[in-house]
Amino acid sequence: MNNIHATLTIPVSGMSCASCSGRVEQKLKSLPGVDKVSVNLTTAKATVTGTMTLESMVDAVKEAGYEVPVTDDTYSIQGLSCASCVARTQNTLLQVPGVADAQVNLATRQATVSFVPDAVNFSVLQEAIDKIGFKLGKIRGDESPKDLAEEERIKEHNEIKKRLSVGGILVVATFIVMHWNNLGLDSIIAIPRQTNFWLQWLLITPVQFWVGRYFHQSTFAIAKHGSANMHTLVTVGTFSAYIYSLLVLLVPGLFMVKGVAAEVYFDTSGSIIVLILLGRFLENRAKGRTSQAIRKLIGLTPKTARVIKSKKEVDIQLSQVLVGDTVVVRPGEKIPVDGVVKEGRSSVDESMLTGEPLGVNKQPGDEVIGGTINKSGSFNFTTTKIGHDTVLAQIVAMVQQAQGAKPPIARLADQIAAVFVPIVIAIATVTFFVWWFLGPEPPLTYAILNFVSVLIIACPCALGLATPTSIMVGTGVGAQNGILIRGGESLEIAHKLDTVVFDKTGTLTIGQPKVTDWSGDNESLGLLISAESKSEHPIAEAIVAHGVEHGITLGQVESFEATPGKGITATVDGHSVQAGTRLMMEESGVDVSSLSQTMEQYETQGKTAILAAIDGKIAGVLAVADMVKKESLQGIEKLKQMGIDVVMLTGDNRRTAHTIAKQLGIEKVISEVLPTHKSEEIKLLQDGGKVVAMVGDGINDAPALARADVGIALGTGTDIAMESADITLMGGDPRSVATAIQLSRATINNIKQNLFWAFAYNIILIPLAAGVWFPWFGILLSPIFAAAAMGLSSVTVVSNALRLKNFRPSVDVA
Fold first, then answer.
1. Which of 474, 476, 484 is nearest to 409 (CA)?
2. d(CA 757, CA 752)
3. Given phi > 0 = left and psi -120 to 50 = alpha, else beta, which region is 310?
4. Separation of alpha carbons 720 and 718, rounded Å
5. pTM of the model as a whole
6. Whole-angstrom Cα distance, residue 424 to residue 496?
7. Helix spans in 310-382 (H)
């Protein structure tokens, strides 16, 4: 964003005292161009006046040790027609003081804007966009997700269809009149040449002004602000042919060459409008198919819910359901919102969200997801999430966010699109004068026709659609396979991955460990289980579950402390209890030599061994086993077939880790890693030149997921892991990792094909339209053929993107 003299107010989080606000104020005052700074501790806001950028203000606040909260929102933009429009609107949004980032998507006709709430609001953004001839609209705030881009597309589709129908009839009639004598119709009624020309004018004028208004309205709206787009090329080209033909009619002597009257080209202007409109119609229809995945997801939500009110079952609108309501679901019905089963048991089909075809059994206490289908029994559940907070709504939002994102591969196309239309107009102008001064007789006619051909054949649309259409289809296909991709950059990086690091517990294993062995006495076991009852670790839960299963009475826990990656220390019924790794015992001075052989035996069986000490003396070793997921081996084999190195990262001891890795065919194992060091291990791999994906599902995986080039979270894991991830696998199936990478590769290859076509099309055909090859081969391109080629270019790009709908993973994750 350029430096603009303005007054900006930004929120600052983390300030707690006067010295905090003073530090922020000093940092902001040190910025070049700042005239005045005021930091208010009570409101947690900083107001700065001067010539500076928002980025410099945010950086200054961060350097002071605080944060500036930024909000993301998505808006609709009316009037977008090509890549030049995208560049114009995106740059305009970025120029608004307070906007940190803006991404405009031609395929969805939406803008995602990151901004500082106190520095900018919707009306400011709307005013900026209105000034350049486009319209910005709000698209959020509904109780349930809606595909607003699809509603806009249908509206435009119907408008194009109406104009295309009228235009098509009139152009066909014009061709009949134009070829009246050739068709033998002069035997019925003879039409003089001049009368024929006037009839053509009469038929084409509605096409030029009413049918072509679809293009002209946009052209004139943005021309007021000194800008141009693809519609500008159509308007200038068709009006050039139309006005030239009209002048031939009105002052024929002006265009005579050696006594021969000039021809009119009304058919050219009309045909261009109809053919390009036909291309837009086909493109629009194809684009509708690119967003089918979103519509399918949105369609999963029922319109009503059956809730219990005053002890009676009542059907109400989904928007009226509240958190805490009791909802009744019968066999075959869709679950309306998220909640927890209160009464009853059933099997629920969650395949539309996770890709898993098998029903998931539900009983009291289990979570249910809105949009899934109840297969067998009836049950009641208590609602926990409604509206935009439901899992389905968040999935839709994530997919829409991904569809609006641009991968780095699209930057070159964006840069070219920003100057494309002015360059084409310049080429067309040069073409006109070259043909006028150097062309054969009649030079003006050749100049006009080649001028029009260059304007019409140039296609910024193909450039603008090359990336977003592939992203839309690719992310949609991913959503249907239970793969949620957060953004374009992660999608692009994923196709370059050469190393995938798996966390073991809950990712490669089921994540439900069970106690298998205990070498000590029952009294010590009771103290150990009592101590573990205060821990939230999955292994602790397994130990406590073992105690409940065997009826062991828990003692009084007087103190408790957990050391991540090592173990726990507690006081139970006056006894000191320690449980954890060999390292923890050694640091505490506990002699474990008597149990070393037993511990090694458990570890070679792939079990996790936990040493227990009571009052400073070793009391026993407990073994916990976590079953490997049956899908893990197949998923890892596929990754290796794809040429990707697989690494297992775990906090388990080396012997246990290697036993599990051997079962899965994993050669590289990083074991005995503390949770806080997982991200460091990822960095070491990256420092070795690897492009790394991290796959995990737990809270302690979040830093590693964030550190990796691509973080992949299992949807069965915690919310924080999903927030840290670039890709989320809803089904929790390790085979989906290979599928996600395959989808990334297919999508990026598709984008490259589209970009190649878009560039090759313009590079080859613009010189042809300009008549570059005429001196050697006598080849010229008719403006009508130019219009047909231009219309088909966009359709080709969208149709190629639609091929991604046929994507099938080579590993069946169903």
1. 474
2. 9
3. left
4. 5
5. 0.69
6. 35
7. 351-354
Nearest to 132 by CA among 214, 41, 223: 223
Query: What is the structure's pLDDT at 721?
Result: 46
Q: Which of 503, 626, 701, 726 is catalytic?
A: 503
Q: Which residue has the tokens 């099309």?
A: 761
Question: How many CA atoms lie less than 13 Å away from 671 in the CB half-sphere?
Answer: 18
Closest CA to 632 of 528, 734, 514: 734
Position 290 scores a pLDDT of 59
> Based on the number of CB atoms within 10 Å of its own CB, is 141 exposed (0-12), middle (13-18) or buried (19 or more)?
exposed
For the chain of 814 residues, list the mean pLDDT of each consecutive stretch of 10: 66 70 82 84 76 80 80 82 80 85 81 81 86 78 49 79 93 90 86 90 94 85 73 83 86 64 79 82 70 67 86 86 90 89 87 64 88 85 87 74 66 70 88 90 85 82 76 82 79 90 84 85 90 83 88 88 85 91 88 89 85 92 86 91 91 82 90 80 91 79 82 65 70 86 92 87 87 85 81 82 84 47
Say which residues have a Cβ less than 8 Å from residue 120's Cβ, sequence separation at least 6: 96, 97, 98, 99
Residue 542, both tokens: 């397994």
Q: Rounded to whole angstroms, how far apart are CA atoms 738 and 497?
A: 11
- Residue 77: phi and psi, rounded to 5, are -125, 120
Q: How far is CA 503 from CA 164, 209, 713, 735, in A?
A: 57, 64, 10, 14
End-to-end CA distance of the chain: 47
Give the side-chain half-sphere CA count within 13 A for 228: 17
Paired residues of 67 in beta bridges: 13
526-539 burial: b if 16+ Cβ within 10 Å, else e: bbbbbbbbbbebbb
Distance CA 293, CA 581 (A): 48
Tell me, yes or no, if 503 is annotated catalytic. yes
Task: Give the position of tokens 């102008």.
Answer: 429
* φ, ψ for residue 508, nearest 5 deg: -90, -25
Distance CA 133, CA 747 (A): 33
Angle between helices 230-250 and 213-223 (to 10 degrees): 110
